[in-house]
Amino acid sequence: xxxxxxPENTNISMQNDSLKIxxxxxxxxxxxxxDQSVNCVVTSPPYWGVRDYGVEDQIGAEPNIQDxxxxxxxxxxxxxxxxxxxxxxxxxxxNTYTSGGRKWRQEDKKNKGRGMSYRPPTPxxxxxxxxxxxxxxxxxxxxxxxxxxRNDIIWYKPNCQPESVKDRLxxxxxxxxxxxxxxxxxxxxxxxxxxxxxxxxxKNKRSVWSINTEPCxxxxxxxxxxxxxxxxxLAGSRAGDTVLDxxxxxxxxxxxxxxxxxxxxxxxLNPEYVNIAKKRTGSVQKNLIPVG
Length: 292
Hints:
nine-stranded mixed beta sheet
């Protein structure tokens, strides 16, 4: 099993390796990947105005929400070139609220990642306390850019982060959008079928997934849960295929891909997360047979 961490300004050469972690800004580094070189994309980009990752020019910190949407649509357009014609793209994204005029957010003892040194201004046309439909804004923008929008999956989080709000419901869900590059594409329905409630046979997987969030002590916030990633990879790829995550974070997609006998390419800007991802996938690699 070979794991490469490719630093910034390193040219990409596709080899028969099981895992590549590419350090750098996905806005530029994804342009280096060859055409139609991956079978499936599973990712969760930074959410707009939700977390400060401490990286200059970070996606999600744009003062204008439309700049955020445009930046992601541009990345996903480059990504569509990299994806095979029968490939699928699974996008996890959540909505958010306007900041109400606050310029920063204090740390929370229960959620160390909550503290922020900035808060984006209220988008033009919206009001204080408005729910911003960022998830659907992004999904519709991707659809207009050429993607086939095939499913809106509700990720219900039974152990969601508590909120002290008194004038609305606590948010306990996010979205997982399934896109395809073409009208016809690879989708393994049988690989993700669910047991019927009466225990008699199997049924197609439904579009509401109840999955707990997973903590990551090294990163001080909940990460992409493996149980959310696994059905995407099983349905969207075959054994030996390559899965791409252009916002690799702490490496959950790579960890699941390796466990399912897939290859993975991850692109990550934050060097701290690259190191965390390397440690997380290292334990998986020791138990796998080398590919190639």
